[in-house]
Design a protein that fits this description.
The complex is a heterodimer. Chain A is mostly helical. Helix content of chain A is 82%, strand content 0%. Chain B is globular, with a radius of gyration of 25 Å. Helix content of chain B is 13%, strand content 48%. Chain B is built from six helices and 26 strands. Classes of the chains: A mainly alpha, B mainly beta.
């Protein structure tokens, strides 16, 4: 266990500089977005209400209340989110390939460690999860703060004085995609994401073991996983004609998801133990 | 421990961020208005089986589905994801069928009009339309029905193509009845009138023999260019004596067609005898806002300020019975209350409520015309919830 934690610590530290830079960019950029959006909005209020004599109600009718919703239109707000997503997507590959590339193959030393290779694999998976959920947690902590700053800058008659979780339920389509309404949905979405990561790791290990041939095997493995995972949906929409109730369908998808997840872990570990080449 | 500070702080951010957000959103509903049905007079037995569904909206654009019963309000967001998956907004009757006949109910549209239930049978019918690109209508329409015999637990399948299917643009099932072992299906279908943009809407009754599983009869009840309304209770899946049809009273461009067919605008179709009966009710009387059929009696309701005038026509006796008027607070001439008849009781509920007004509920015995129950929807945490809101009720169920 302590070896596993040490490995997680090691893996995390290898990326922590970039990670904390990402966090810094996100915080700074999103706070900027609060100010620019609020300024924009107040500029409109000035123009329409004070100069052109629009009533407050008409203005709200046309421009809506000031809220986090307007922020999600701002590139300062969405930009860092996109940057984080892209960086993590690249790092999904790099977390493996950096061990092979470079002056002296680091993977050689890693594989020689007097510890089970399960730990090696699990440490990489855990690190990815820490990075993803770390950014998710950061964003969820940032939103109320941004909401609060908005409330301070913009006069209260132009804001919806609602806490963030309230506003989630009916407005911010973009944010609701990242952070679904209920914790249950959140768990389902991010579990599917984790499964995807595990399948990708398997593909990478196939490639590392068999090189060009491995890529072909990997692609086949990918397609196979996708078919297995979505098989309840395929069956439902083709020849079974809505046979399953939604809850049964969810149950079946959980099962096929677990099958794909377990298979990916087993195959990865097998490759890592027996087939890996440096 | 000290060397792990980065790891530990990330884990902390994860648990705090995700934890606080989802904890707050899970417990948020308690801040919303909590409605309940408050009894004013009458027997509480009549009030505690009422369940109303609706939608709340605030001036700021927030809206959420909910239902209210005697004790509490349940918001859609309070319902767990798993429960929500199966849908909260279909009728309690279908929910019960789904519970009791899990396998029979698989893969069926959850429209109550497509179901029928009595002591022996549960019947279901749908029209399966395959659309083609040539004309806009379906190229192929098939009836797909199932009848479950509750005692023997056997299912009869029906798979029949619709007659003259290439003429019609669409066909929807509007009612299903089992009459002496035959399945009668009311279908609303539309066809394009030759060279023109005019559509003609027809109401058919198709009869299927459940022994031979064949279509044995096709009756056309009405055919109108202006369209017509079926005035049956759409949530009801029980046996009905009559189907009530109201022809559109709009003056269409070619009113000649509708006038030569019949002068009456209200038609009742008897499912057992297959007879069409024209109800001699004048246009003036038909101006009543809501018309409901229950058994062989047609109820017409005229809504006025704080009162409801009821006109009853008995099809069996062929005449108008007495007119009754009773008081109900909060009604306006233009308001559109939910009116429902079940077990010989009349349920009327105001559909709109905001901070100041209350939505009243009145239950009346239809035999004696005596009030059984009077209540109002109240907000239990009025003082805590400061926002302005409007509550729109859209359906009423009696459990």
């Amino acid at each position: 266990m302590s070896k596993y934690i040490k490995l997680v610590h090691f893996e995390f530290n290898r990326f922590s500089n970039i990670f904390f830079i990402l966090i810094g960019i996100t915080i700074v950029s999103q706070i900027i977005s609060v100010f620019t959006s609020a300024n924009n909005y107040l500029g409109n209020v000035n123009q329409m209400v004070y100069r052109e004599g629009m009533t407050k109600e008409q203005f709200i009718e046309q421009y809506d209340y000031m809220s986090l919703h307007q922020l999600t239109d701002s590139v300062w707000f969405v930009g860092p989110i996109a940057l984080c997503i892209v960086t993590l997507l690249i790092y999904l590959f790099f977390i493996w390939y950096r061990d092979w590339f470079g002056k002296n193959s680091f993977i050689y030393r890693l594989l020689m460690l007097p510890t089970s290779r399960v730990n090696l694999y699990m440490a990489k998976v855990t690190t990815i999860m820490l990075l993803v959920f770390g950014l998710v947690g950061l964003q969820l902590l940032l939103l109320p703060i941004e909401n609060m700053i908005l409330g301070i800058i913009v006069p209260s008659e132009y804001t919806m004085d609602l806490p963030v979780y309230e506003t989630f339920t009916y407005r911010y389509e973009f944010l609701v995609k990242l952070f679904p309404k209920t914790f249950m949905q959140f768990s389902v979405y991010y579990s599917v994401g984790l499964m995807g990561v595990l399948v990708l790791f398997t593909v990478i290990l196939f490639e590392r073991c068999f090189r060009w041939k491995g890529i072909a095997i990997g692609i086949i493995y990918c397609i196979l996983s996708a078919l297995v995972f979505t098989s309840p949906l395929i069956v439902q929409s083709t020849f079974l004609d809505n046979f399953f109730y939604p809850i049964e369908l969810l149950g079946l998808i959980v099962i096929t998801g677990l099958i794909v997840t377990t298979a990916s872990i087993m195959v990865s570990l097998y490759l890592l133990k027996n087939k890996i080449t440096v | 421990m000290k060397r792990y500070w980065k790891l530990i702080s990330v884990v902390l951010v994860i648990f705090l961020g995700i934890g606080i957000h989802y904890y707050q959103s899970a417990t948020a509903a308690s801040n919303n208005p909590q409605f309940f049905i408050n009894k004013i007079s009458g027997s509480s037995d009549e009030g505690n089986n009422i369940k109303v569904f609706g939608e709340i909206s605030t001036t700021e654009g927030y809206h959420e589905n909910l239902y209210i019963d005697e004790e509490e309000t349940v918001y859609q967001k309070e319902i767990s994801y798993l429960e929500d998956l199966n849908g909260m907004f279909f009728t309690p009757e279908l929910k019960r069928l789904q519970n009791d006949y899990l396998n029979f109910m698989r893969g069926k549209d959850l429209r109550p009009v497509q179901f029928f239930e009595d002591e022996t049978y549960i019947a279901y019918m749908t029209t399966d339309m395959v659309f083609s690109g040539e004309n806009f209508g379906p190229s192929k329409t098939t009836f797909r029905g199932e009848v479950l015999d509750k005692q023997t637990n056997t299912v009869v399948d029906i798979n029949e193509s619709m007659p003259n299917q290439n003429v019609y643009d669409y066909a929807f099932v509007e009612d299903v009845q089992m009459i002496n072992g035959d399945l009668k299906v009311v279908v609303r279908q539309s066809k394009r009138v030759v060279d023109g943009d005019q559509y003609s809407e027809e109401i058919h009754v198709y009869t299927f023999d459940t022994d031979s599983q064949m279509l044995i009869n096709d009756e056309t009840l009405v055919s109108e260019t202006n369209g017509q309304d079926i005035l049956s209770d759409f949530d009801d899946i029980d046996y009905q004596e009559y189907l009530l049809i109201q022809k559109s009273n709009e003056e269409g461009t070619d009113s000649s067609e509708s006038t030569k067919e019949s002068n009456s605008e209200l038609i009742a179709y008897n499912f057992e005898s297959s007879k069409l009966i024209e109800l001699p009710i004048s246009k003036e009387q038909l101006k009543y806002n809501t018309i409901i059929i229950d058994g062989s009696k047609v109820y017409m309701f005229k809504i006025a300020k704080d009162s409801l005038e009821t006109l009853v026509y008995s099809i069996d006796e062929g005449k108008l019975l007495s007119t009754k008027t009773f008081k109900m607070n909060g009604l306006e001439e233009g308001s559109n209350p939910i009116i429902k008849i079940e077990n010989n009781k009349l349920y009327v509920i105001n559909t709109k409520k905001d901070r100041e007004t209350e939505a009243s509920i009145v239950v009346t015995d239809l035999k004696t015309w005596k009030p059984l129950y009077e209540g109002a929807i109240k907000n239990a945490n009025l003082s805590e919830y400061q926002e302005d809101y409007t509550l729109h009720l859209n359906s009423l169920y009696i459990d």
